[in-house]
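Researcher: Sequence of UPF0042 nucleotide-binding protein follows. Predict its structure.
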Amino acid sequence: MRFVIVTGMSGAGKSTALKMLEDVGFFCVDNLPTLLIKKFAELCFKANSGIDKVALGIDIRSGKDFNELFEDLKEIKENGLNYEVLFLDSSDEILVKRYKETRRKHPLMGDGRIQDGISMEREILKYVKEKSNYIIDTSNLLTRELKSELNKIFIEDKSYSSLYITVLSFGFKYGIPSDSDLVYDVRFIPNPYYIPELRPKTGEDQIIQDYVMNWDVSQKFLDKLDDMLSFLIPNYIQEGKNQLVISIGCTGGKHRSVTLTNEIFKRLSKYDYSIKKFHRDIDKDKKSKEM
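Model: Prediction complete. Tokens:
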């Protein structure tokens, strides 16, 4: 019997996650009154229930103190009934944007601002997040990427570190990404921009990749960065970090940074990490010329 509690920040994707779990055979219940949760769990765990996978959505609409609610669940676990907690999170900036796009009110904002409701909710859920088995930050996740993460945990039963890594290329002339955790400057590598026949191409083209990686300094940098990340990432996981943005920048974010981002993405993909790459400024040069 697998009993999963799906919770997290309002607007972070809890309802979407429940629908995805339902699609893979989970019996899903959302926003069950808190007075019924303990009884519901006991019924599900009965041998003749006919249910082997349950996902229960709980959020601040429950009307009960979350710490008290989880004390009830602790009692269930002490009776030999195991459960797991999946926590959906997202950055404040993204949550505000989602609420504005859907024109919905945050359940805790009252007559105040959306940000006020988010801050209040984050404080309420702090204890729950600390006790969660899995934390997925949906700030930069596409729907299919969220589905892939859920499949790893609940279908493939892969080990899950709750750390989602984004490797991001950018151009310094367009500004350093504000959500960066680690920033690496690769402007010391010879620039293919100054070779006329290479200028229009990008780091997604093999000819640019060959040019950039043909330099000894590029190979040494990549090896040293790989070694540094192999040390840092396990320590970030142990510390409970759930989102890591590694930003690699060159002048325009088109050639060198794209190539190095692709290379470090390949190396990190060999490990059992949840990882994606994104080239923020790869087309900025082309777009500026079209204007």
